[in-house]
Specification:
Radius of gyration: 19 Å
Structural class: alpha/beta
Bound molecules: threonylcarbamoyladenylate, magnesium ion
Strand content: 15-25%
Length: 315
């Protein structure tokens, strides 16, 4: 298949591909998404094939208006106020909400669950694409399943050229990590995946919010049970930075190529993490040694992604 590379001025062309049931990759403020019309099951199936994604891992539906929210989700009276507070504070933006779904959303999107993940992205290209497509867009991160998410056009082109109908060429994504996911369907709201909307910020609006323990998480959020974000290099996360030097020496003596990732600015590191992973692969790095990460603010999300990419954590 020939992949059309579209500029940010060709969003109508991109939308016409979506309307025809084709896949289009597009930038969001978090990572690039691999989009299909969320109301067209045949189109949605193509996402799983293109990514090599297990079909039991549900997708996030991206919307551009409150009307679309009501079209796809059932909102109980008891949750209305909370929901409107969340929307006022964080939408459009990097926050995904799990709600009860309506029948209009096909099983292919939700992997048969009775809930649906919904996000209104902030990126202007993404919002226009949804608007011009006249339908909500189901989109996972644009990467081959298990690999680091795409945060630059070149990443997406590398993974999907020849496999999808179109890619909108935007810039590097501003946040670099996938959205925060919270489940509003259980009596206690749970944070399923940390992201740029932080636990601290959310707790101000949802004081009852709980962090999901990883064992339960695997069950609640199907995507969490898969190994993710992994470069070819073995990632080792250090809780104790004093040990990095010894490991570096040991591996280098074995003739291995070692890259030490030691960045204090967590916002920068979040923005660059997946690109660094991909660059390490290009440079045939064997080991990526990552210095300790604080769990405050975006640190929680960053540490989650690094841990899930990692082969060992050294305490
Ligand atoms: O920032 C993002 O969220 C990006 C951009 C493109 O919006 N998308 C993204 O999608 O990261 P994906 O498919 O890579 O991750 C979606 C996560 C998975 O862990 C999935 O299991 C979970 O959301 N999820 C989706 N629907 C769910 C549901 N109904 N219940 C629980 N978890 C759900
Ligand atoms: Mg993903």
């Amino acid at each position: 298949m020939e992949t059309m590379v579209l500029s940010s001025k060709q969003i109508k062309e991109a939308a016409s591909l979506i309307k025809k049931g084709e896949l289009v990759a597009f930038p969001t403020e978090t990572v690039y998404g691999l989009g299909a019309n969320a109301l067209n099951p045949e189109a949605v199936k193509k996402i799983f094939i293109a990514k090599g994604r297990p079909s039991d891992n549900p997708l996030i539906v991206h919307i551009c208006s409150k009307e679309q929210l009501n079209l796809i989700a059932k909102i109980p009276k008891s949750k209305e106020e909370l929901l409107s507070n969340l929307i006022k504070n964080f939408w459009p933006g990097p926050l995904t909400l799990i709600l009860k779904r309506r029948a209009i959303i096909p099983n292919e999107v939700t992997a048969g669950l009775d809930t649906v993940a919904i996000r209104m992205p902030k990126n202007k290209i993404a919002l226009k694409l949804i608007k011009f497509s006249e339908a909500p867009i189901a989109a996972p991160s644009a990467n081959i399943s298990g690999k680091p998410s795409g945060t630059k056009f070149s990443h997406v082109f590398q993974d999907f050229n020849g496999r999808i109908a179109g890619i909108i060429k935007g810039g590097k994504t501003s946040i670099g990590l996938e959205s925060t996911v919270i489940d509003l369907t259980s009596p206690t709201p749970y944070l399923l995946r940390p992201g740029a909307v932080t636990f601290e910020e959310l707790s101000k609006i949802i004081p009852k919010l709980k962090l999901m323990k990883s064992k339960v998480k695997k069950f609640k959020s199907p995507g969490m049970k898969y190994k993710h974000y992994s470069p070819n290099a073995k990632v080792i996360l250090f809780e104790d930075n004093k040990k990095i030097k010894d490991y570096k020496n040991k591996y280098e003596k074995q003739g291995k190529r070692v890259f030490v990732l030691d960045e204090d600015n967590l916002i920068n590191l979040s923005r660059n993490l997946f690109d660094i992973f991909r660059e390490c692969d290009k440079n045939k790095i064997d080991y990526i040694l990552v210095s300790s990460i604080s769990e405050k603010g975006i640190g929680l999300a960053l540490k989650d992604r690094i841990k899930r990419a990692s082969y060992r954590v050294i305490t």
